[in-house]
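thread: overnight batch results

M.L. [08:02]
morning all. the overnight job finished for the chain we discussed friday. pasting input first so we're all looking at the same thing
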Amino acid sequence: METVEEAISSAVEAIERGDLGQGRSTLSWVVREDPNNRLAWVWLAACVEEDEARDECYRRASHVKV
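M.L. [08:03]
and the structure it wrote out:
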């Protein structure tokens, strides 16, 4: 099993090569494992198609305490 950090790296690589579905799937796992992962929420926003879902990802990212 990948670590959260490895999963984010894998998701970003998928997104950069245009595989948004794989990126979305991996990042969805990350935010289930670590719902306070701001980086994962921001990248997940890049993968979703609906404006409402994108706004929710950004909202969750902005509410994460650092």
